[in-house]
Amino acid sequence: MSIWTELTGIDHRHAYVDAGGIRTRALQAGPEGGEHVVFLHGTTGHLEAFVKNVPVHAERYRCHAIDMLGHGYTGKPDRPGEIPAYVEHLMAYLDAVGAERAHLVGESLGGWVSSWAASEYPDRVASLQLLCMGGTKVNPAVMERLKTSTRAAALEDDISLTRDRLRLLWAEWDEDLGDELTQVRYEIYHQPDFQRNLHNLLALQEVETRERNLLRPDRMARIKAPTLVVWANKNPFGDVPEAEAIATAIPGARLEIFNECGHWPQHEKADLYNPLSLSFLAGVS
């Protein structure tokens, strides 16, 4: 099995889109006239995080999995990666593809960005799915682990460090795609422009920067979009009470917890996540 064999059953396009002057890498699939669903990855991640999800969603929806600002093969302006900048880039992408409104699916950092976008641009966000979302707490130990593991994976030549960084995300190693995803991430992490930009991508792991970007309850209370919170009982970056607090803070939010699962529920438990997501989308479309 390969990342790209996951996609062989659908008509899809690997594209570069000018999003407000930022060359933005995207995987696009699904009917041109379908409602837009945008998938957003986590810190130092990339669109391949959603290869198990795009095909089934693209049967009905116009899907976009993108490399966010400064990530993957998307452009890397030399400025700290703070949440308003990610939201600005997301809105520019929606404008570029003609999406007046979109359903947002955000994992980790992607959920943080999606929630902020929904609080600032309620007319443009049709629904939210927040998968092991970050951004509601300052936990120096977790932040330091993320910084240390990412820097080692990006700045050392040993590919096992990249594998170790990916293994943080899963309760169990993915025997089918793990090695290929490791190779994809290794190639991204070892681009010279990625390494030069790494301090910007890790800016939110600094206490002062994170504090001014936090998703506080008053901001989450402003979210009007229907919201599904998906969490995992073995998420290494946040325990279940964090998810419960998020679901309480967002009006009407629904919480689903996956057992024996880590930080990538959409990947590790795709057989549970995909039907759950499609049912949720059908209910709000």
UniProtKB/TrEMBL annotation:
Superkingdom per UniProt: Bacteria
Recorded GO CC terms: membrane
Entry keyword NAD: no
Protein's name in the database: Alpha/beta fold hydrolase
A Pfam family hit: Abhydrolase_1
InterPro entries: AB_hydrolase_1, AB_hydrolase_fold, AB_hydrolase_sf
MF-aspect GO terms: hydrolase activity
Organism: Streptomyces spongiae
Domain AB hydrolase-1: 36-269
Protein keywords: Hydrolase
